């Protein structure tokens, strides 16, 4: 079982524990804000399951129908997470609207806050693990799941502050008001998750710093060639696709040109892990004099 799959399974277990704690906190207090927090945790479970399925699909090797692999499956999970975050926020706004017009005193608010606080600590630790390991494994689904959990941590902190203030002041209107503010924050974070995931589905190029690194590698490792041009990149899940045209002297043999390509591919693979490099070799008269200059 891969590390990414183990983390995805861990998210399901953590999600169940946190949901149970938050539902208990809402049940003993009747707080609209704590209910909104519990509603978001139901989304955590659903998105953790979506991430698990997406990671399993993305790990499949290329086949006849998918010769470039299944790496983009993780982006669909990340998009789904963003959409579900937004849906959860809309549900929370509805509950806050009802609570705003009929505020009431909470039952056992201190006990509810302690239980909800325990759930928040569990979420915070697991979110940090998911983001850190997801970035190391280049897994968009795990990173999106971790960032989603961070929004849940922020949500829980805001809810706790609202419930505590309401308990200390007796202004029970603060309970639904805090729920509404938290929902707005969730809407914002959900839109960011969707935007980041769509960039992968749209074959967005690698970051500028990665592109500069690839250019430097080509320039220093393609000794014997004339130039490189038409460099294009895209990322799909954990894999980066790189392609470009390499201009070689007209008299160079196919063997020598192939040796240069192998050298460049190996160097790019070391500089940017998990890459698929495609090089189109061209004769010298195809030079554009605007591409990457090859150093002797």
What are the key terms here?
8 helices, alpha+beta, 296 residues, 4 strands, Cation_efflux_TMD_sf, Alpha-lytic protease prodomain-like, elongated, Alpha-Beta Plaits, four-stranded mixed beta sheet
Shape: elongated
For the sheet with most strands, the description reads: 4 strands, mixed
Q: Say which CATH homologous superfamily of the largest domain is assigned.
A: Cation efflux protein transmembrane domain
Q: How is the largest sheet built, in terms of strand order?
A: 3-2-1-4
GO molecular function, one term: ferrous iron transmembrane transporter activity
Family: Belongs to the cation diffusion facilitator (CDF) transporter (TC 2.A.4) family.
Membrane topology: Multi-pass membrane protein
Subcellular location: Cell membrane
Write the layout of secondary structure elements.
Layout: H1 3-29, H2 32-58, H3 73-101, H4 109-136, H5 140-169, H6 174-201, H7 208-221, E1 227-236, E2 239-247, H8 254-271, E3 275-282, E4 292-293
Parallel strand pairs: 2-3
Antiparallel strand pairs: 1-2, 1-4
Helix pairs in contact: 1-2, 1-4, 2-3, 2-5, 2-6, 3-5, 3-6, 4-5, 5-6, 7-8
Structural description of this entry:
Its main location: membrane. Residues 207-284 form the Cation efflux protein cytoplasmic domain. The protein is 68% helix and 10% strand. With 296 residues, the protein is an alpha+beta fold. It folds into two domains: 3-201, Up-down Bundle (Alpha-lytic protease prodomain-like); 208-293, 2-Layer Sandwich (Alpha-Beta Plaits), CATH 3.30.70.1350. A four-stranded mixed beta sheet has the order 3-2-1-4, with helices on one face.
